[in-house]
Fold these 2 entries.
Entry 1:
Amino acid sequence: MSEDPGPNPFVKHNHRQCRTSGLREAQDFCTIRGLRLTPVRARVLEILLESHSALGAYDILDRLKADGLGGQPPVVYRALDFLVEHGFVHRLERLNAFAACAHPATEHEAMFLICSDCNQVAETSLAPIAADIDRAALALGFGVESRVVEVVGRCPACQVAA
Ligand SMILES: [Zn+2]
Ligand SMILES: [Zn+2]
Ligand SMILES: [Zn+2]
């Protein structure tokens, strides 16, 4: 299975394409699996697809309120639960925030590169290091259930600005 890594979100790219393909992949996936991408779910995904920045639930809530689409936290949390469960959105524990997935239609484990200055997030495949993680865990007798790697640093633009 070849995995298109997509454009580098840290450099200027045709982001319109990220947005449209992210939404289209989610719509196709839902159609095939008989899942309901309700207007609120679709809008939350769209908000996250607008940039490669991680957003907190309350940032998303503010945007939904501005759209006139439900103003209660449970509405956002339920939509996020759905989007995370089906792999359209990733939850970033470190930031307690959410980022749209770069390639939602494929089963994958991700490594996230998080800019500590601007909260931009890039997603890259964990596949090359998954075996190393398992080996290190196994050495301690630990049974791995899920692997999420969050790497913190500075994106190219913030390195220049610093
Ligand atoms: Zn983009
Ligand atoms: Zn992903
Ligand atoms: Zn940055």
Entry 2:
Amino acid sequence: MGIGAIGSALAAALYKNKNIELKYYNRSPRDFIKIKIAGAEYIYPIDCQTNIAAGQQLDWLIICLKEYHFENAKEWLGKLIGASTKVAVIRNGLRLKEPVLEFCEEKNIVECMVDCPVQPVGDGFYEQYKMPKITIPKSGISAPFLQLFDKKYISVNIVADFKTAAWEKLCGSAALGAILCLSGETCWIFNDKKIREIYKNILTEAVEVAIADGAIIPGNFIGKMLARLKEYPPEKGSSMLTDRRNGRPVELGAKNGAISRLGALYGIKTPLNDLACSLLQYTNKDGLGRQKK
Ligand SMILES: NC(=O)c1ccc[n+]([C@@H]2O[C@H](COP(=O)([O-])OP(=O)(O)OC[C@H]3O[C@@H](n4cnc5c(N)ncnc54)[C@H](OP(=O)(O)O)[C@@H]3O)[C@@H](O)[C@H]2O)c1
């Protein structure tokens, strides 16, 4: 469900598994999965449903939506998730199970962190720049999830402490993303010592909230992230910057918004993350103040 960038990359990989029957669901019509990988083009015809009836009895529902898509997707979730359906939620952010909990038991949900840069490149194609790597927590359904994929096309990594892994990713991507998205520049900007200081301060707020939430962030994490900045190519961007440049909503609720929200919950002040949210919230509205889709 959700045949955008990540949904297309996953569908292309799953398409090769002849032992499973795939069904496709997307808000807008899609006739093909069209993806470019390492210079080669792959086009797979699909029968994608944009209107769905209840009671589909899926074994697995793999959700590839953005954080802000879930609210409008609830009606479909109710129709697609049955008593024995297992659900994989693949998206950025934290607490990925939350929007699905009203439709199924927690033990049937697997949270997935995905590392796989994929971008729309025109003519309905997405370009996938790396093999998808999915990180999931160890649970009763991690083994059946693993069996869906051929490791030639997707690597699935099972970790004991998913919360820490998700927080570490979020801390880095929210600090980097806020700076690039607000400045409109790529990573060359970190040549400036003042910008590196701002990065460090946004990151420090995030780490405080992460620790309060139970993540086990090592003491050298911030130093390591600062050292990593020096290794980034000057032209490296971020998903937040790309969304802003393309006029798409920025996934704030899965980035700085998640840090601000949980900071408020634990009584930790997060002024820099709050500032990023205040300034970027209008990128998610159109000229009449309506929420962009
Ligand atoms: N792209 C990347 O490189 C990347 C990398 C790592 C992580 N991620 C994360 O992966 C998640 C998915 O991102 P993405 O880049 O794949 O997003 P995307 O390209 O915007 O794809 C989202 C898809 O969901 C569909 N959709 C939206 N609302 C829906 C609804 N109510 N019912 C059914 N379908 C609906 C959209 O349909 P329409 O065709 O109508 O728009 C679109 O095809 C995000 O959390 C993102 O941060 C992305």
